[in-house]
């Protein structure tokens, strides 16, 4: 998986790293139990401070996307559970995106088609 960071973006680098890793997992570019680069390796590859990568990894760990072991490093988690906090976050983000789409004149059917097209690109499908 190639990490692409926008150093000019207002989005903090650690958030960009987090988002790209989540997308990589969702698209199947990163598989369950796949080992991630060490903090030092990813920092060197991305040209950022190790603390930035560490912060991204800690957030991913807290959210359940990765597991970190001192001896084995960071690996993609087998299962990520949707808890109430995640569901509330998802609903809030979807509400904002829906509002923005509506304000700009996008029809509901077009918005849903766009969502469906993006979701279809995700390779990780789990039954709950």
UniProtKB/TrEMBL annotation:
Gene3D superfamilies: Winged helix-like DNA-binding domain superfamily/Winged helix DNA-binding domain. InterPro entries: Tscrpt_reg_HTH_GntR, WH-like_DNA-bd_sf, WH_DNA-bd_sf. SMART domains: HTH_GNTR (SM00345). It comes from Lachnospira intestinalis. PANTHER family: GNTR-FAMILY TRANSCRIPTIONAL REGULATOR, HTH-TYPE TRANSCRIPTIONAL REPRESSOR YTRA. Residues 11-79 form the HTH gntR-type domain. Pfam families: GntR. SUPFAM superfamilies: Winged helix' DNA-binding domain (SSF46785). It comes from the Bacteria. This is GntR family transcriptional regulator. CDD domains: WHTH_GntR (cd07377). The keyword DNA-binding applies. Keywords: DNA-binding, Transcription, Transcription regulation.
